[in-house]
Write a structure and sequence with these properties.
With 134 residues, this protein is mostly helical. The protein is built from five helices and no strands.
Length: 134
């Protein structure tokens, strides 16, 4: 990671990017007044990473919902399988809750770390964000 020291505007911009699940990060990258390469790597890194975290937050739960819905419909074709489908709905609800609270904790962690002016290290996502900085 580069050793540039971010100012308070960039720290707050990075935190807001996470709090809006990447929407502010996308706006910052698209219509920033500075040239793309004149922006510090700190803000660009956190903007990219917030966009990926936002995509995870939106699409992974939908994928689980589609998967469980398909499994419930297939198992529902079997007669007397109401107990199994009811338990699958409960399992799906638990998985969705754990996933949402986990991603909420990740977003809060990223906000706090970005306010301290540091880089977060989320497996795979941070590596992709680093590659996009080049």
């Amino acid at each position: 990671m580069p050793t540039q020291i971010p100012n308070i505007k960039e720290k707050i911009g990075a935190a807001v990017a996470y709090l809006t699940l990447g929407i502010w990060g996308l706006i910052w990258l698209l219509i920033s007044g500075k040239n793309y390469f004149d922006q510090k790597d700190f803000i660009r890194f956190h903007c990219y990473q917030s966009i990926f975290v936002g995509l995870l937050y939106m699409f992974i739960p939908q994928g689980f919902a589609i998967l469980f819905s398909l499994a419930v419909q297939i198992i529902g074709l079997i007669s007397k399988a109401a107990f199994i489908t009811d338990s699958m709905h409960v399992i799906h609800g638990i998985i969705q809750s754990v996933f949402h609270y986990g991603l909420l904790a990740l977003v809060i962690y990223c906000v706090i770390v970005s306010l301290f002016g540091k880089y977060t290290n989320i497996p795979y996502i941070s590596q992709i964000a680093n590659r996009m900085l080049r």
